Amino acid sequence: MDAAREALHGLQQPEGYDEPEILSFICEWLDPWRGAVTEDDIWDWENNSTIDYLQMLQTMMKTWKPRPAEMMLHNDKLSQTGQLSMIALLRGQRRYDEALELSLSLVRSDPIGVRPRLATALCLLDTGQWHDAKTVLDELIKSDSKDPRVQALAVIFGYGTKGREHMEVSLLLDDQKETKKWMDAAPVNAYAALLQKGGLDEAMNANVLIASHEATRRAVPPRYSPGILMSIFQYLVLIPVWFVLGILAYQEIGDVEGLAVLSGLLFLHYSYRRVIRQQEHQIRHRDQRGMIKYARRLKRFKAVPQASNIPIGNHLLLSGILVTVNGVVLDIGYPAWMFERLSKEPDKKVRQRLRKRSMALEKGKTPRVSTLGKAWWLKRPKEHGESGPMLERSIGPVAYRGRTNYIRKKEPQALNDAAEGKETQLQKRFIPRNTIRSERP
């Protein structure tokens, strides 16, 4: 964190290009104990998608409630990526219809995007429309067969086991030992940490949102607070013991010695607690004491996210705080210690709100957590009698706007021409014809 601050300091520019300043702000915001920014500094940024999305995450974390409608304030790449993360959270909380509706809206806004179609296929899988999801996957394979995310989706739909060298596929197929390397390769991917034994604290360090569905189901507030037994032990057991020892020393040894023993024990007690708090505030990728305590708290309430309760494919969609570097959207995670930035609210009130949604979540359909069988489309009957691709029936021609040229640009000849600096011959370009009905022959 300190190295990032130092590197960004020289990149800040007073006007125009504001990405370095936003990155510097995010670095400070990620450190709630030593960061030089407060919530009031957020209002210095107006109509900025990065800051607006950060505020939305903070608001959502208060009650673990996805808020996809608020992401429609912007229509840039970062906001679209944030909406994909909302789809993952909606799937986890078994709100499949809302997730499908949001994914279709993303396909309308970005017809050539891979992840909107990928999200649509996963949502159709959740709702039981497997054959419709297969049509979406077939379109993705035709246009982006080399994309690791598409290969992972193909594995989910029983198309084989190709692409194990990629993280997206490896997390679906490989065992615990082989997936351990992805914890360091992708430190903000919480799913990779969850697959490891004892990796819950690393997962909370990477992205606490992966636990939102289980925290909602068990009505666990996001703010960490020590257990009642620990507080009782600290104040009603340990401190009285120190006083008893001081009194014994006072009676058996002497007045001065008794006071010295009592003062020394109390000093050591509070010094130890202070050191422990400082260690909890020390940000580390692994074995951060604060995240270990947070993970123990989730285990105590039986709100542990696992591969057995996370909808399959969610690791392809879930993200945390998003930033842009030269226009490229990057995910930097959303650690659990960000609850320090939340306004304090009694846990009892938060639990009351969570219990209402917990009941609705329990009534929902259990998510699918395993891949489909091989050649399932030959055994499973179609869900309806309609023909044609699902997106063509649900959205129409808008879902295919620009895809023909997009696919042509990926043909071997077009790629070779682009590499050599040649221009594709005019007669080989795709030029739409007969687009006006009145002029059709």
Structure summarized in a few sentences:
This protein has 441 residues and is an all-alpha fold. The protein is built from 21 helices and two strands. The protein has a domain of 254 residues.
Question: How is this structure best described in words?
Answer:
By secondary structure, this protein is mainly alpha-helical. It has a domain of 254 residues. The protein contains 21 helices and 2 strands. The chain has a two-stranded antiparallel ribbon with strand order 1-2. Strand 1 and strand 2 form a beta hairpin. Helix 4 runs parallel beside helix 6. The chain is elongated, with a radius of gyration of 27 Å. The model has no long low-confidence stretch (mean pLDDT 84).
Strand content: under 5%
Please count the beta strands (DSSP E, at least 2 residues each). 2
Taken in chain order, the helices and strands follow as HHHHHHHHHHHHHHHHHEEHHHH
On the 0 to 100 scale, the average pLDDT is: 84
Strand order of the largest sheet: 1-2
The major pleated sheet works out as:
2 strands, antiparallel
Q: Cα-atom Rg, whole angstroms?
A: 27 Å
Head-to-tail CA distance between termini: 65 Å
Quaternary structure = single chain
Using the alpha-carbon principal axes, give the shape. elongated
Helix count equals 21
Unreliable sequence segments? none
Helix content: 40-55%
Strand-pairing-aware structural class? mainly alpha
Which key features would you list for this structure?
single chain; 441 residues; mainly alpha; two-stranded antiparallel sheet; 21 helices
Write the topology of this structure:
Elements lengths: L1 H8 L9 H11 L19 H15 L13 H16 L3 H14 L4 H13 L3 H15 L3 H9 L10 H7 L2 H4 L2 H4 L4 H5 L5 H7 L5 H6 L10 H25 L2 H26 L8 H12 L21 E4 L2 E4 L15 H17 L26 H5 L8 H6 L3 H9 L21
Antiparallel strand pairs: 1-2
Helix pairs in contact: 1-2, 4-5, 4-6, 5-6, 6-7, 7-8, 8-9, 13-17, 15-16
